[in-house]
Amino acid sequence: MNRVRRGFYADSVALMRISRALNAIDGVLEASLMIGTPSNRALLEGSGLLDVEGAKAQADDLIIAIRAVDTVSATAALSESEARLSGGAQASADAGMTTVRSMRAALEIMPDANLAVISVPGEFAAAEARAALARGLHVMMFSDNVTVEDEIALKQFAISRGLLMMGPDCGTALIAGAPVAFANVVPRGDVGLIAASGTGLQEVSTLLARNGRGVSHGIGVGGRDLKEAVGGLMTMAAFDALEADPATRHIVIISKPPAAAVTARIVARASACKKPVTLCLLGAPSMQLPKHVTHAATLSAAVQVVLGRALDDAGAPALATRSGWLRGLFCGGTLCSEAQIVLAELGLADVQSNVPVPGASHVDRPQGAAHTMIDLGDDDYTRGRPHPMIEPDLRNELLLQVLAAADTAAVMIDLVIGYGAHADPAGLIVNALRSVGSSDVPIIASVTGTDADPQNFRVQVERLRAAGVIVAGSNAQAARLAAQCVRL
Amino acid sequence: MSNHQSPEQPSLSAIQQLLSATPRVINIGLSSFAQEMAAQQISVVQVDWRPPAGGQRQLAELLARLAAYETQIAEANAQALKRMLDAAPVLVDVQPAGQVIPGLGERVILHAGPPITWDRMCGPMQGAVAGAIVFEGWAPDLAAATKLAANGGVAFHPNHHFDAVGPMTGMTTRSMPVMIVENRTFGNRAFCMINEGLGKVMRFGANDAEVVDRLHWLADSFGPALGAALRAAGGLDLIPLISRGLAMGDEMHQRNVACSALVLRALAPHFARVVSDGEALAKMLAFIAGNEQFFLNIGMAMGKSIADPARGIAGSTMVTAMCRNGTDFGVRLSGTGDVWFTAPVEMPQGLYFPGYTEADANPDMGDSAIMETIGVGAFAMAAAPAVVGFIGAGGASDALGFTRAMSEITLARNPKWTIPALDFEGVPTGIDVRRVVETGIQPAINTGIAHRQPGVGQVGAGVSRAPLACFEQGLKAFALTLGVQS
To answer: What mean pLDDT is reported for chain A?
Structure first.
């Protein structure tokens, strides 16, 4: 049954949280709350949840779609959804921040605003960003599904106005010590980060923090900035800013391997920089560089370059070799890449991924006769549901599946905490594991975070360890431990 | 679109500036981001984002194309707004409508709202028409009057086409006494019938002998006396009167307690001078004192006199009239001349007097939305928290919310009319059709609710909303004036 609320808008994450709660109601087979855009209607139709009423919904309507065993359960789900929808409004009002309906009204209240954080649906995001830039605001765009043409135009416009255009698809920034969106609480320091990857920035900033080093700024540029078409426009602008920034003494660039031409440009820029630069271009081959520029193939290697010493692997348990394959289930795409690189460096052949690094081959699902490193934040897994960093439910389902599979040698997982992330990802995993009882398959985890994060790194680690999960000091170390399980 | 302009900065320094201190954030979209920033003491304003133009791609694209004309539109709007804000309306006189409104002759009836034919008029409107015909003596009784109207024996025109306005049904005929407001800045005049009082009155469609008798008294006794008193007083300056009314808790549409009292206070000595019979004088003063909405019609004539000079400015997206006839809602824009953009009126949301329910209510009606057009009424709700409960809109903090929401669709704040509860910010003034379409925020209108049957009168009060369709049509027509196709 479908119920349509006309002229209602809520962000999809909020709606999906409600959907999840409805799915937990007895007798509810499937429930989904979605804004009635054509693409959402198609999604609902595809899952057999759209009826005649829902089909009439428009982009400013909310569709509440419920399939239940009987009318009583459906009605219960419906009233629960109503209660939660109104409760959400209450909570937002209680938070005490001013809420308006337009950027113009927001600027009247805060005329000296200097950063617009944009997380609206992709088809509308470019227009909002353009308006923000035109008003002299720097932009951080979390939205994805923005065309590369729009991205280039926005970044060129930003540069012409001397502004930062972080994103699209930029979820993480640390501006003058302030964590914005998906970011961790790290001390301020002298390391300036420029990242095309949000989780990469989080892993490097938290590893630095846990080893006593602080961050001046972390500037996200979006996953496509270093692609040929965009050509590193914002990476270069951020580079200029950090080179001129008195608080920054060491610059780290974090990205998947860029196109060759872009790599050459980055290397040339880094070579001309007066400050030490670490190029963490994950999986890129080694290259000729001047003395003050260092290449690091992994996130943890980049941290070691900055620290000038190796990260401490002491205290790691020795793991027995087992038959079968490694199953990596990642929330962080860059952590998934890093794991593949580490496994390859250790000589493991047969590494497959849905986001393969150079040298790895492609696979969609965590199964088959190969080590599979799956990024659950990839579009294929996130279509129509929140990112697993926000809502790790999907990962927990897959975790139970791979634990039950006979050919699983060990499981690798990453927990990313900090602002924006789930309130207790370790708790969810512990609950999931409790439901299956004991398993002899080792689970090797890393936690990206700090003790100052709202979830508290130490609490999360202890919670996992108490449930028998092996917790490594970094994602790279988790990969090395996992490799022990399958080394011949 | 915004008056906010950051100073031009050389490339590096704008970014360096951002990096030099904790950012000040406008968060557009996911409210959880804003909540987490607020929890970290990062200054943040949340934009509760909706798809522009309610997700209607064609309109959203039209808005985007119009952005190319921003400078031209902004200049035109500044001019239209200045004309509104520079107004100096003075209530000067009362005269029979036929003597001061050109073209208002025999068998012509002016009504509220955009143009409408007899067959489409709602019950109260038809009832009021019959009563007005009997009052003018064009038919001997209501039955004959109804027949006359139905057979095309009278001509119907909107008040707005004759420099006039009228509340609810808005009947204006030649013998009715109209109050005259003169806008001394621009020399134009506007007219509105005297408010008949509460209860069974023609503006709510009542038409029996009591109603018609009262009209005769207003035309023959009260109107001339009020006119004489005003002439003796040298007119009543309305801008400062409204300022005081706002400070005293009126919003000048649903609540006119203070302004009505201020008028009585100002005019009582002059009434005493021009009316020699003590009993007649007492009756007149009691009539004003007994009607807390007495000022509404004065305010409406004032509103019309303020809005009219802003009409017809090429390139302006400002709304110059909003009105309803019980069937259609009509909107005029400065840049599109005298065209009406109409859509079916909505039902007001509100509270009903005991014994009545929404089933008894007539759809939204009256020219009184001229008050919101010039920035008072629902737009000034923050000044009148007492109204909020009465019209079912919620608590006192909701009153502030109404005014703030309306400021998102208006061009400016009126510095002459300020609201104490908003730290003496001005009332939001000058509705911009682009912002209405973009945000989907419908202008709110404080209104009385008439019974759907003629002759019963007022059954409640509430808030109605101007239909978005009027503004969407208006935006498209406006774009065409600039050569932009939708």
So the answer is: 89
